[in-house]
Write a structure and sequence with these properties.
This protein is of the alpha/beta class. It folds into two domains: about 1-115 and about 330-375, Rossmann fold; about 135-320, NAD(P)-binding Rossmann-like Domain (Rossmann fold). The protein has helices at about 20-30, 45-50, 60-65, 75-80, 100-105, 130-145, 175-185, 200-205, 220-225, 235-250, 275, 330-345, 360-365, and strands spanning about 1-5, 30-35, 55-60, 70-75, 90, 110-115, 155, 160, 165-170, 190-195, 210, 255-260, 285, 310, 315-320, 365-370, 370-375. The strands form three sheets. An eight-stranded mixed sheet has the order 3-2-1-4-5-6-16-17, with helices on both faces. It has a seven-stranded mixed sheet with strand order 11-10-9-12-13-15-14, with helices on both faces. α6 (about 130-145) runs parallel beside α7 and α6 (about 130-145) packs antiparallel against α12. The radius of gyration is 22 Å and the shape is globular. About 50% of the residues are buried. Bound molecules: nicotinamide-adenine-dinucleotide. Nicotinamide-adenine-dinucleotide binds near residues 196 and 230. Nicotinamide-adenine-dinucleotide (NAD) binds near residues 123, 124 and 173.
């Protein structure tokens, strides 16, 4: 099969959908891989490295003109126009963007959005949300450490003792767990909150403390279980109690990393302006949910601004929306392996396309085919 890999064009997107490692495997399976010149450069992969792995170097028209196009982000209008009907496109195509999916369907593309894969054991190796959220959690802590004017670890020096940083993590999915692990390695004291009580053990196993909030009604207990591993919106009564507990910790915190998300909905508000006002000057918030708040404003904190770092009430608030792109080489390496593993489900050993809708991963990821939006 002819496989095209265009350079990503979205502002700030540094990742690329294949690496020399995955190109080599695709070429060994008999595919022809055409990579757009410069596609890997922001992820430190040269055209020469792709060529050495067996790829041909092409331009945008050549990459989008392939039978199958491997992308990181959903194609723009101009990019969609470069693909012929029937082209298979695979990437993070944003399954909650109905207008975007319609555009792909209208262009006659067969599209697979990898974010829609189920959170099952079999899907783990192609789980792009996990591979990228893991990187986001790590980088959030690195950025916080950089912005923070003090040490993370407790230090006893001849010039006196320095206290360990207090870190609060809000939302303990993949990103939150990696943020806890990373902050712990730096020597911080960590507390964390999530709506799902099942994360308590995971937090404690990483050396953090779970912020306990009671579940008082059947409705609260049921919502806390979530669905498919994801959180569901919690009743207002529980959120009010959570806010009281979180506010106490945030007032004492030096760093807050917030990662709370509910698929297909606005990110919950967990750090109000009053809570920011109560924080110590010089504290840092990294809001991984920035840009995903109600109506796209704010994130878990309404004061965060997408893709900006702002100082409000003496607190530095980082609203970087694409943290994995700041770790471009490893983010691309892991993403490219996710893509390669997904291809094994839809391409036969002989190199032919075979879309088996009996396969739950294939069916969940397929978002457009034959002119129709097919999102489940
Ligand atoms: P996510 O990015 O959708 O959300 C991040 C976290 O925010 C979640 O833990 C969620 O519970 C939490 N959250 C939502 N509302 C909140 C609120 N009001 N207050 C505090 N926290 C709130 O989640 P994710 O990282 O994609 O992970 C979701 C789940 O899927 C996790 O349990 C993860 O371990 C699981 N998972 C399973 C597999 C697998 O089995 N293959 C793979 C990856 C992830």
């Amino acid at each position: 099969m002819l496989i095209g890999v265009p350079a990503e064009t979205m502002a700030g997107e540094t990742r690329v959908a294949v690496t020399p490692e995955t190109v080599k495997k695709l070429a060994a399976s008999g595919h022809t891989v055409r990579v757009q010149s410069g596609a890997g450069i922001a992820a430190s992969v040269t055209d020469a490295a792709y060529q050495a792995a067996g790829a041909e170097i092409t331009d945008a028209t050549g990459a989008f003109g392939a039978d199958m196009v491997l992308k990181v982000r959903t194609p723009t209008d101009a990019e969609t126009a470069l693909m012929k009907p029937g082209t298979v496109v695979i990437g993070m195509l944003n399954p909650f963007d109905a207008a975007g999916l319609q555009r792909l369907a209208t262009a006659g593309l067969t599209a697979f959005a990898l974010e829609a894969a189920p959170r099952t054991t079999r899907a783990q190796s192609m789980d792009v949300l996990s591979s990228q959220a893991n990187i986001a959690g790590y980088k959030a802590v690195m950025i916080a450490a950089d912005k923070y004017q003090r040490f993370f670890p407790m230090l006893m020096t001849a010039a006196g003792t320095v206290k360990a940083a207090r870190v609060v993590i809000l939302g303990v999915g993949v990103a939150g767990l990696q943020a806890i692990a990373t902050a712990k390695r730096l020597g911080a004291v960590i507390e964390a909150s999530d709506v799902r009580p099942s994360v308590k053990e995971q937090i404690e196993s990483l050396g953090g403390k779970f912020i306990e909030v009671s579940y008082d009604t059947d409705e609260e207990k049921e919502a806390a279980v979530g669905v498919g591993g994801y959180a569901r919106p919690m009743p207002a009564s529980w959120l009010a109690r959570q806010q009281v507990e979180v506010a106490k910790r945030v007032a004492l915190a030096d760093i807050v990393i917030s990662t709370a998300l509910i698929p297909g909905r606005a990110a919950p508000t967990l750090i109000t302006e009053d809570m920011v006002k109560a924080m110590k000057p010089g504290s840092v918030i990294v809001d991984i949910a920035a840009g995903k708040g109600p109506d796209g404003v704010g994130g878990n904190c309404p004061l965060s601004e997408a893709d900006k770092t702002v100082v409000k009430h003496g607190v530095t608030i980082v609203g970087e929306t694409n943290l994995p792109a700041l770790v471009a080489a490893d983010a691309s390496a892991l993403y490219a392996r996710n893509v390669l593993d997904f291809l094994k489900l839809i391409v036969t050993k002989e190199g032919a396309l075979k879309i088996d809708l009996e396969d739950d991963i294939v069916a969940a990821c397929r978002v457009a085919q034959d002119g129709q939006v097919t999102k489940q």
